[in-house]
Every structure is written in C-alpha cells, then in structure tokens.
Amino acid sequence: MRAMVLEGPGRALVEADVPDPTPGPGQVLLRVRACGVCRTDLHIVDGELPDPRLPLVPGHQIVGEVLDAGPGVGGIVAGDRVGVPWLGWTCGECRYCTTGRENLCDRARFTGYHLDGGYAELAVADAGFCLPLPEGFGDLEAAPLLCAGLIGYRSLRMAGDAERIGIYGFGAAAHIVAQVALHEGRRVFGFTRPGDGATQAFARSLGASWAGGSDEAPPEELDAALIFAPAGELVPVALRAIGKGGAVVCGGIHMSDIPAFPYELLWNERVVRSVANLTRRDGVEFLALAPRVPVRIEVTTYPLAAANRALEDLRRGAFRGAAVLIVGDGHASSRDGRDPV
Asked: What are the structural domains of the chain?
C-alpha cells in the first residue's frame, strides 16, 4: 500500500510502498477513505512529543471502511464505515480504566503515534476503539470530528456551565466547539493571531459575539477560556480575561512553557487545567450531538501525497477550519488544498 512515513523526528514524511497490514486478534482492517490533519501530527513530526514508534505512519482522524476482521471481533462487519480516533488502545485494568478515566491509562497506545495511523491506503485498528459515524456527514466532514471535535467537546465540558466562553486559537477544534457552545446557549468570544482579520471574520460568521487578536482584551469579562493554540504565554493572558471562579482549559497535547505570573491572576478560585486525550464515552456523546447542532465543518482537502504541504499549511495557518487528506473515495463538500489559500 501507499503510505506517508515518518522516519525520524524533524524530517519530512516520505511517500513509500509498505506491506499491507494484517488485523490481529480484536482488530479490524480498514480501507482508509479520509484522514484529518491535526496539530498533534505536527508536534510528532517536529519531535515535540517523545518516543513515537519509528518508522511511523501518522494520522489519527481516520474514516475507513471495514474490509476484514481478526479473531474475536464482534459487532463490526465488512462494509461498515467507522472512525478511528487518537485513543487507540487501553489496558482496561488499571485504576484509571476502571474508574471511567481511560484517557489517563498509563499503558495507553495512541493512533498515529504508537500505532500506525491513517496517512495510508490501509490501516488496522482495535475494534473496541472504532467509533460509529453519524449519517449526514461525508467522509471528509466526519474526519475532523474524531479529534478536533472530540477534544473541543471535552474541553468545553471542563468549562462547566460557563456562559461567556473565550476561545484562543481559532482553528479546527475551535470552529467546531464554537458551534456546540452556541447550540447550548453560551456566548463565544474568538481570539486569533494578532491582525488575522480573515479568521476573526470567520469566527463572527459562526456566531461569535466578538472576535479579535489574542493581544486584545475582550469587551466584557469571560466565565471560561479554552486554549487550543500551543502557546503557553496565552495562559496568563486568558487568566486576566476571566472572572472569579473561572477556568482556563488547555486543550492541546503540547504547549510551550507557561511563563511565571502573579498569584493575583489565579486568586479568587480561578482554575487552570489541561485536557488529556479523550475517552470512548466522549466519542459516543459528541458524535450523537454533532448532527443535532448540526455541526458544519469547513474543510480544505489535500491528496495523500501532499501530506507534507498540508502540515506546513497548518503550521502557517494558511487555511480556516480543518485540513483532510483524501485517501480513498472520501467525499464531502470541501475546499481543495491544491488551490491557492
């Protein structure tokens, strides 16, 4: 099969012919139809996350068609369309797994990091971690739901019942979670790179009450802030923007160092917390909610062979919404990444 392979951190992906994978016990073989491009992929390629499996096929927002199943698989049959998220396997036995916190499992393995992912024509995945995808979302639209959507959803839940939500870093996750927040009757304030008027206009088009640069103060006090940009310096900025008892939720798996800030910013029961991975329960809940909103996905597409360009465009903020690789016969309304952006 064709695959885009990472041979070492800091290197560009290499297009290669590699052996077709074979499903083992409890696994399914998938024909990959589409795979989302995530900032976590960029962190892995850049060597910012430690000890990836090498050589590695990245990609953890996989939409695939089941071709075959290994021993012990039930409930999934050939022809089913499923989604494969970041969380690829857990032990099921530790104190985290047995208390509804499988996202914290010490032995967890992650798709496109410890396990080969979806930047390829075929993939294998643990059947227990494949998610049924809602009807009404084409392959390209469904792919970003599997990480950008899920992490955004978990981040929003960490904000409790906050009504005024600030979102820092208005990319794939933000453009999805903003719609969920508005559906729940909350108000959204979007923060972008300073001077990025196009993305600010995009945030307002989705229903944001206000949008401006991350160097600007919002027009009113916030109840919570969600940070999706991997910039630690935004944490004290967001703390200054939220009121008493508010929460700053860091949604990324990697972030630059948070600078020192005065205790005064944390005082009055403000909270800073991280979101680590996701659970299958998150997946079931969010994928049931997405059609009811309904979530609209803005997609820029790239062919599989252009995965390096997709990652570089993500780094530059060259598109709005989410980027998705067309691998098989994936289909949805989308913007073609081969066009100028």
From this structure: 2-146+278-336 (3.90.180.10), 149-274 (3.40.50.720)
